[in-house]
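Write out the 3D structure for:
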Amino acid sequence: MGKRRLISLLIILSILLTPITSLAASSYNINHLLNIKKIIEYNYFYETTDKELIEGAIKGLFSALDENSQYYTAEEFQALMEDVSGDFVGIGVYLEEKDGSIIVSSAIEGSPAQKAGIKAGDVIVSVDGKSIKGIPLVEVVKLIKGKEGTTVKLGILRNGKNIVYNIVRAVVKINPVEYKILEGNIGYIKIRQFYQNTYEKLLPALKEFDKNKIIHIIIDLRDNPGGFLSEAIKVAKLFIPEGPIVHIRYKGDIEETHYSTLKKPKYKLAVLINENSASASEILAGAVQDTKVGTIIGVPSYGKGTVQQIIPLPLGDGMKITVAEYLTPNKRSINQKGIQPDIIVENKNGTRDIQLERAIEIVNSGF
């Protein structure tokens, strides 16, 4: 009996080690990866597919890169392209997480959510009849999104009352720029993200401000995650005086500098940032700070000082890969450091916007 067990054990070991003989002699190249795939296919107990293994292997490659480089499956890549285009299928709400609750910060004008009656300040308590308590914001967003023409049932808490809305998902066009004139003839511009049409959408705001002879402008970059570098540079050219806006350093010590040709800036700026202001929004804030055309107010920004390129792949999948780092006009790197505000103001009060109030005070004081 003992001899049979030993023979059985040797047979099993032989099966397991068969592909490893060639593997041990190989170097870390594509053959090494293929050998590992063969071992998995031959020995792994649970069912798996080539597609699952290959996607897993590709994601493994990206795990060796920086946190901003990422591989996307075809479904994930489609969602990414929707996000960066400024058009997406959903209900059209901006959400934020406060004290463990998911709150509607605003409903996009003309969106299904606005038409249904969703209002700023509404607390989302359920999606399709299921409680979202304890579910992270990013996961709640995924639950709300879906195919065009389908319905999502949203449970809302408003002023102590529970309300249920059935909202049909549709294509939502995002306006990345909101603007208004504040008391005291102060211009206010909220740039939500640098989409491909951000510069174009900003021009009517400045036209309106010029008509009202406004020279003091508050630019709100809070919670702006970035976006297209080219759009941030075009926007910066409207405010930054003649000289460098940003230096971009590529592989091989190749450096590219983007310049403003603005002879004399006409506006005095106060720029609001927070811990979620990242990438392209930090480029604009850094240029304002280095050229002293404005005051930066808020808390330190995210600190994403790198540039990514989005690359579509033949099977509908794609990648986003870091191709460069950027420096402010004074050649400061803000990667993992962030932009440090000229005036630090925490926004701890849930009902008042203390940072905006401080910006208005500073603008009224004439800087």
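Residues 2-25 form the longest helix (24 residues).
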